[in-house]
Amino acid sequence: MQSVMxxxxxxxxxxxGAGKSACYQVPALLIDGPTVVVSPLIALQRDQxxxxxxxxxxxxxxxxxxxxxxxxxxxxxxxxxxxxxLSPEQLAKADVVERLESVRPSLFVVDEAHCVSSWGHDFxxxxxxxxxxxxxxxxxxxxxxxATAAPPVREEIADRLHMRHALxxxxxxxxxxxxxxxxxxxxxxxxxxxxxxxxxxxxxxxxVYAATxxxxxxxxxxxxxxxLRACSYHAGMRAADRDDVHTRFLDDELDVVVATTAFGMGIxxxxxxxxxxxxxxxxLDAYYQEIGRAGRDGRPANAVLFYRxxxxxxxxxxxxxxxxxxxxxxxxxxxxxHDGPIAPKELRSxxxxxxxxxxxxxxxxxxxxxxxxxxGLLDLADDAPPPPEAAxxxxxxxxxxxxxxxSRVEMVRGYAEAPGCxxxxxxxxxxxxxxxxxxxxxxxxxxxxxxxxGTAWQxxxxxxxDSWGNGIVMRxxxxxxxxxxxxxxxxxxxxDAVRAA
Length: 501
Known about the structure:
alpha/beta, Rossmann fold, Arc Repressor Mutant, subunit A, seven-stranded parallel β-sheet, six-stranded parallel β-sheet, 19 helices, 19 strands, globular
């Protein structure tokens, strides 16, 4: 709060339930000018607005009537409204940004800021436009908030938001009241039975995460057959039905929600007693964010991962999508043909692409140094190659991301198959050094929570490799070291081989 009050850009990483919202709510009331809060989910926006109604808050989103939104903007302009809640998709609209320019916000807050990063588990392409929006608004003090961000994610958040000399405040990742456990299954049938029986026996309420919509519905039905108040939750449901499940869960009218990953972001429910993963998560970033929804009241809670090595193949399939060179070349060619700055909306119309495909292509071209943004307009970089080569450069950027994503799936394997303390493994992934075994995971329960480490390097040391480039040490063990390389992702190396080289 002191950093924000001093007008300094600030990146805050705090565990779920530690009070991140207060970090902007209190300074906002003490600083002249309105506050913009970028929040990813309409349900989350609604909860935040309700909490702040007495201080003047409204959300401009697709669920609101136009008259309500217009009245909200008028109240902001007259000084009667302090908080404006927007989704990143809203900020991709030129008229919304123009309205913000007219009211001159003094504080720009990005909630769930890990979504800014292409490394982040809830990555949304429209988040990548926020840095340009911040610049157009005259760079108000910028505050980024998240519960989960490994060192490379933190670096990318600050870069993507164009933060200036940002203060990074990282207040630890450990949630010692959550017991960590991995249950290994030999077959899919054994895993399914294990999930249903274990969830039935857990203290309620709780959340089960499944990889697919079909599995979410299947598990919810099986739990309902056992007499539990269980519902599924996924993007294929009508918005009204999702909102109903969300509300009933908050009101303790459901024992279990079986969901895909969207459910739970920002949920302020203190009494969740367990979070079970019926399938391996896409990354440890995602996993730690999701299990952080348990035990927010500080009481004991359980996090159980049901693991079948073959399931890693499904996650690798999800991360294997490739960039479309035809689309990339088309967008690059249209920018070149325009011969001068062009509005994103006009370019997307000319390209005849959906919002998601267009934004993804544009982001890749920007990362490849082909396209630049200034004052909300797009233009070719001074040294931009011809469109075919531009497309190749953007594809190379996408392939680099895919290699990193695949390596993050392998880190999930490392956690699931860890021979020692699971919390030690998990916290090291986020760059947090732990000297002792936690005593509250299944490995420690078995007396196998060894945390012996190698001595050649320390966690967070910067290193270089002849083939893989620069990296940062994430984990040291007695006989191996895990390094996160900037361009290829995570690699675990045997110390004997490193020393021999």
